[in-house]
Amino acid sequence: MATTATINPTRKFFDSVAATWDESVTVVPSKIDYIIEAAGISEGDRVLDVGTGTGVLLPFLSLAVGDEGHIMGVDLSSGMLSQARRKFSSLPNIELRLADVETDTIPGEFDRIMMYCMFPHLNSPIDTLKWLIKVNLRPGGTLTIAHPQSRHQINGIHRHNDGSVHSDHLTPYEEFCQILTAAGLTVDFARDDDNYYIIRLKK
Q: Which whole number is the average pLDDT over 150-169?
């Protein structure tokens, strides 16, 4: 019987681009700082970074939560995760774990859950959100879906990609918020403009 690891096209795609991924990513610290602020992350928080990739958020999260906080970064791609380990293994408050949030149960409860530049790649996004909020988010905590670019830019990037992410698109926030509300989830912040796509859910 084939394993999930051998048939998951998203995992296969990100493993294939992991070694050169950082060359195609532009990190704008001021934008990430804004996203962390919008997510409500503060000193001492426990943060789950879902789809941590090569670790773009990790140094910013580490600084935000301080010595008393903790970050667990999870990713389904061993290739992407190895790059994150190579760059950030020296950070004392970070734990990295190979896991697929759509098939694996992540241990622990967190004050904040981050989905940075990864949400469109989920196969069952609403079910995954509901599960993470139920199992991993503490009462009063937040889960934030965030992109430091516009929805149109993100959708254009994915549309012109020949890999498995070709059809991975973001939904206009008004429509998406209606879907989330109908699923019993609480949206307490949304921004969908030329600079950001951010949806924050609260438990």
A: 59
